[in-house]
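Build the 3D complex.
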Amino acid sequence: MILVLSNHRDEHAQAVMVELSRRGAEARLLDLSRFPLDLGLSMHYDAQGGGRRFVFGCDDAGLDLDDCGAIWWRRPQPPSVDGAVARTEHQHFALSESHEALHGLWQAVDAFWINEPARDMVANRKAFQLQLASRLGLEIPQTLISNCPQAVREFVQRLGVGRVIYKAFSATEQDWRETRLLREQELDKLDNVRYAPVIFQSYIEADVDLRITVVGDEVFAAAIHSQDSAYKVDFRMDIGRVRIEAVTLPPEVQSRLLALMRQLGLVYGAIDMRRRPDGSHVFLEINPAGQWLFVERNSGQPIAAALAALLLEQDGQAGARGAGEPGTPAGARPARRRAKPARPAIRP
Ligand SMILES: Nc1ncnc2c1ncn2[C@@H]1O[C@H](COP(=O)(O)OP(=O)(O)OP(=O)(O)O)[C@@H](O)[C@H]1O
Ligand SMILES: [Mg+2]
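Done.
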């Protein structure tokens, strides 16, 4: 059984569920915002011998996590007690206890993950990614992350106005900020970094932006023609119209990106780079749960299919069903218990 942790409105999860169902796979999408009010969880432990059983659902039709060989940590929703608990401190307690149970569960579950939650969290940290990428031989922009106005002023002075961008750590749907080129008239606002650290970087001129989606050993590199778009600094502002096509990476760039994936312990990653007019490549970031449908729809690269195939293979369903032959009826599934893959070291 393949378990997808997301919500039913998630197009990416749905795209993979479609691929899985075409292949006759057993798969379930679980929305964790139903926990704890509408979704039960019981974690049973024997007093001795290490035996345990983890089950979602309070009745016989529950989902035994030992039946899940592969889990996709796609967009897990936070637990919720919305509307059910009146006092704020009681809400906090209910949510914190729910988080505790779930975090422990994910650590204890014996399955193949895309990606392991703890690794996903660490890999998502931009301040860490940049260091690791640079140590692995990838070029990164000159960077200053700071809430010290003086340090920021010196950085801007050194690089020059017109050559510095600034951006936020995270862009969520609720709070989205594009990357901006720092302008002369913003210099007197630099004191505002006191309220929160900001990422300042040298502006990397682009021939194209690159989005490199890695699924296991497969690398899907796509060129995004950002310089033909309405906003050359950040193509995401014109994502509906920008041209995207498959490209091949220079072998040394590809092997360094795969080394980065390994070091971060990631099986899936969506990497952003810029290719300069002189052909050199600059690493910007890696998104451990980044989107890919905008790439697949334009470039035709079969990323949803690759994710489905990897989940199937790791769940142990592949051999039984003739993976790659969508529509073949489900056969008997071989016993699935495999050793948990060794955890790679996070740090170099
Ligand atoms: N140093 C830079 N020089 C030039 N362009 C940049 C630079 N940093 C970011 N950009 C542009 O802004 C875009 C968004 O930046 P980046 O991917 O680093 O941040 P993000 O906000 O975390 O993005 P995402 O939405 O992919 O998570 C990049 O794809 C690129 O086009
Ligand atoms: Mg990005």
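The pocket of adenosine-5'-triphosphate (ligand 1) is lined by residues 141, 165, 167, 171, 179, 201, 203-204, 209, 226, 233-236, 272, 274, 284-285, 287 (CB under 6 Å).
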